[in-house]
Specification:
With 244 residues, the protein is an alpha/beta fold. Helices cover 25% and strands 15% of the residues. 41% of the residues are buried.
């Protein structure tokens, strides 16, 4: 991360929690890419939306971030190339399918490798490349999908966290400024599997191994923090909220 970006996204965005939760409803378009019959069914899409609203609403653990997702529509595209290589075909895929403005979340469902289950654009990228804005996830990571340990829909929760402006909890390891959020203790490296208690950095606080922005198995993820919620809201207000 550049020094300029560090200045722009510094502790002013970290936040210390809020007295009241501000509700923000995010319009959501889901683009199902298929290779013949292979790909996500619409039932999984609706289960995924429910998982997003539960995670961001604090129903699983952690705080209610105030963000909710309203499904506006589902598109269906049969394209084996896009399905098998959404990274390589990102530009034509998104330029063809993306809808809405900076406030609209476009979620693309295709098939990636098990080493990369999803990727997202950051809100401060929107101004320069609006047509590439959005989140891509492996359809097999959706609720009930075939990816063992990653089939509760939390890959989408994690990647959408990036879309809102969150960094990994292990960003910068034990070094300041970490992930720019005050109430996520630093951790030296990402967690894997479903670890027990861990404290990998000298700074106070156990590693946030249950945070959605770490790398644990889905069954081990359960929370966002008040600081993360505050950062997401400020990023939303700065970069995504429609101007009137």
């Amino acid at each position: 991360m550049s020094a300029d970006l560090r200045r722009r996204l510094g502790r002013a965005h970290a936040g210390h929690g809020r007295k009241a939760v501000e509700r923000v409803t995010v319009p959501l378009w889901v683009h199902v890419i298929k290779d013949g019959a292979l790909g996500a069914p619409d039932t999984a899409v609706r289960d995924q939306v429910a998982a997003l609203n539960a995670a961001y609403g604090g129903k699983i653990g952690g705080v209610d971030t105030g963000f909710r997702f309203e499904l506006k529509g589902i598109t269906h595209t049969v394209n084996p190339q896009w399905f098998r290589d959404p990274v390589g075909y990102e530009q034509p895929m998104k330029r063809k399918l993306r809808t809405g403005g900076s406030e609209t979340l476009n979620l693309y469902l295709a098939q990636l490798s098990q080493l990369v289950l999803g990727y997202a654009t950051y809100p401060y990228w929107y101004k320069d490349e609006p047509q590439l804005d959005g989140v891509v996830i492996d359809w097999r990571s959706m609720p009930g999908g075939p990816l063992v340990n990653f089939n509760r829909g939390y890959t989408a929760v994690h990647e959408i966290g990036h879309w809102f402006g969150l960094l990994h909890t292990f960003e910068n390891g034990c070094d300041a400024p970490g992930d720019f959020v005050d109430d996520t203790p630093p951790e030296a490296e990402p967690s894997s599997g479903c670890p027990g208690r861990r404290d990998s950095c000298p700074a106070p606080g156990d590693d946030p191994i249950h945070n959605f922005m770490d790398y644990g198995y889905d069954r081990c993820m359960s929370e966002f923090t008040a600081g993360q919620a505050a950062r997401m809201l400020e990023m939303w207000t700065t970069y995504r909220q429609p101007r009137t």
